[in-house]
Amino acid sequence: MSYGFWLVRRFLAPSIPAVGERVVLDKASSHHLLRVTGIAPGESVEIFDGRGVCAIAALITVVDGCAVLGVTQLGQPDALNADVHLVLAQLRASTLDGVLRMVTELGVASIQMISTERAVAKGDKRQRWERIVAAAAAQCGRVTVPIIRPPCSWAEGLEAQVGQRLALLPSAGFTARSDGALTLLVGPEGGFSAGEVEELAMAGWCAAGLGGLTLRADTAAVAAVVKYGGLSR
């Protein structure tokens, strides 16, 4: 959905009501709208609910620090590929933040962290990750926000995924993309261990490559979404 210069003035809303009705933004979105962007009463912005619905709405008033907007026009849903999912060994925060932003811009439907032998970073930081993907979705024009699934163990991750399952390995060649859902698995900075590679094969994962060079984990994650998931636009 594009409205020229309105494109960058997008804000996440709890829901999108009908034309003529009002919606109240939460504190974080209201602060960004009022203080960072400087929207004045009567000005229009784009709002989206993160689940596929968007609209144009005008700022009416502010109540207890929260922006109250009136919907003036409903928008069209975006056309992202809803069947591409990324399972990723947790990377260092400074690196992972960039991956989350870029794969959101490329249209992935969900992201999940998986435990691996050589992963350095640990911990469930879903609140942080959810803020990052929500901001990236607002910036790039997506109407949906990727689902951040709870981190899982190695065994759970191998068995729980659906659709065609591709594990990115430096030594593998290119693999044909099947129709339907796709799950991409990307390892940590140090790569998968030999034992993990064997377990991947035993669990039915197909090895997939990205060319002859050994890529950094963050580069591999983004390249895999582009190569096998397809660009979102």
Number of strands: 11
At CATH level 2, the architecture of the largest domain is: 3-Layer(aba) Sandwich
Helix content: 25-40%
Strand count, sense and barrel status of the largest sheet are:
6 strands, parallel
Overall, the morphology is: elongated
Strand order of the largest sheet: 8-7-6-10-9-11
Can you tell me the residue ranges where pLDDT is under 50 for at least 5 consecutive residues? 1-7
Based on CA atoms alone, the radius of gyration comes out at 20 Å
Termini, distance in Å?
11 Å
Order of helices and strands: EEHEEEEHEHEHEEHEH
Mean pLDDT: 90
Domains counted in the coordinates: how many?
Answer: 2
Beta percentage is 25-35%
In the CATH scheme, the class of the largest domain would be Alpha Beta
CATH topology of the largest domain: Alpha/beta knot
Structural class: alpha/beta
So how many helices? 6
Q: What is the name of the CATH superfamily of the largest domain?
A: SPOUT methyltransferase, trefoil knot domain
